[in-house]
Amino acid sequence: MIPYISFEDGEKHIDWIDLTDALAAGHALPRAEISDSLLYRGEDTLLQRQAWIDGLGIAVKSATVFPGNPASDVPMINGAVTLFDDTNGTLSALIDFHLVTKWKTAGDSLLAARRLARPDSRHILIIGAGTVGRNLHAAYSAAFPQANFTVWNRTKANAEKMASEIDGLSVATDLETAVRKADIITSATMTSEPTLRGDWLQPGQHIDLIGAYRPDMREADDTTLQRARLFVDSFETTLDHIGELKIPLTEATIKREDVLADFYALDKFQRHSDTEITLFKNGGGAHLDLMTSRYILEQWQAAQRTLG
After folding, report:
1. pLDDT in tens for each of the 308 residues of the chain?
2. Residues 106-118 as b or e (16 or more Cβ within 10 Å = b)
3. Which has the closest alpha carbon to 236: 192, 269, 283, 187?
4. Number of Cβ atoms within 10 Å of the Cβ of 39
């Protein structure tokens, strides 16, 4: 029987550090073929993201976005990942959409941070108090267990709510002050106007930008990009598609060669000194969903063998 891996069942068997190792291994395989498709019915949307990696398989991530659902106490976003075998194309598993998205998104950033952030980082600032911000706390805690965490959110009440749910998390009232004190700054907001200012940055910091995903969205200003060594998860999903890089590239405030590497050249993800500033743009992509889904399935299968 083809397994369906629910959110609750899948989370029992996976680990943030193991996941980043699996993502690194996935990028040692041939570069993924990826594509996206969208269908609309009024305000309702079907999004499908597909990826095929030779040696790993095929994933189709389907998401339905129905903005009217919350009025009926139904989640706005639903979906699943369909995973296919690489050898014969047969169905391998169905995996909960939210499970894959949670671990893919935060794991993507953590893979970069494990290579670019200073290992002695002790102060981590989370900008944005939404679901992704909570997931980032969990992910970064795994790699930086001695760190202190602070959250800043434009609406302070949301930051306070997040802090009430997470032991040891403090709330920042002034963003500039919080940025200046941080070793790692991870931002997951939906802003179109830059919130993070390069004039606030300090030597040795690592910047992790997650929130912007449309051509008109940015979380950091030009000075931030100009002061940092720049890295991305995928050239294909970031440079021409996300305003964080597309806008400054179009306006020539940065050059294409300033973006030093993506995950297919992980050996270049290195910090050259304790004083340089590094910046990673997390753009996501179906290939990361495929790598994450395959990891989840393999861990689930290993647990079933142990139980059986």
Report:
1. 899 999 999 999 999 999 999 999 999 999 999 998 889 999 899 989 999 999 999 999 999 989 899 899 998 889 999 999 999 999 999 999 999 999 999 999 999 999 999 999 999 999 999 999 999 999 999 999 999 999 999 999 999 999 999 999 999 999 999 999 999 999 999 888 999 999 999 999 999 999 988 889 999 999 999 999 999 999 998 999 899 999 999 999 999 999 999 999 999 999 999 999 999 999 999 999 999 999 999 999 999 888 76
2. bbbbbbbbbbbbb
3. 283
4. 10
- Residue 28 sits in the same domain as residue 74: yes
Do 111 and 155 belong to one domain?
A: yes
What residue numbers bound the domain in which 194 lies?
106-285
Q: Who contacts 256 (Cβ-Cβ below 8 Å, separation ≥6)?
A: 239, 249
Indicate whether 133 and 210 sit together in one domain: yes
What CATH number should be reported for the domain holding residue 59? 3.30.1780.10
In terms of pTM, does the model score above 0.85?
A: yes
β-bridge partners, 65 = 45, 77
Beta bridge partners of 186: 126, 208
**Amino acid symbol at 262:** D
Other CB atoms closer than 10 Å to residue 70's CB: what's the count?
10
Same domain, 152 and 248: yes
The answer to whether residues 294 and 156 belong to one domain is no
State the total domains in the chain. Answer: 2
Closest C-alpha among 59, 62, 54, 60 to residue 32:
54
CA nearest neighbour of 219 among 240, 248, 262: 248
- Give the CATH number of the domain where residue 118 resides: 3.40.50.720
Does residue 213 share a domain with residue 232? yes
Buried b (16+ CB within 10 A) or exposed e, 137-173: bebbbbbbeebebbbbbeeeebbeebbeebeebebbe
Query: What helix, strand, coil percent values describe the chain, rounded to 5?
Result: 40, 25, 35
**β-strand pairing of 44-53 with 33-41:** antiparallel
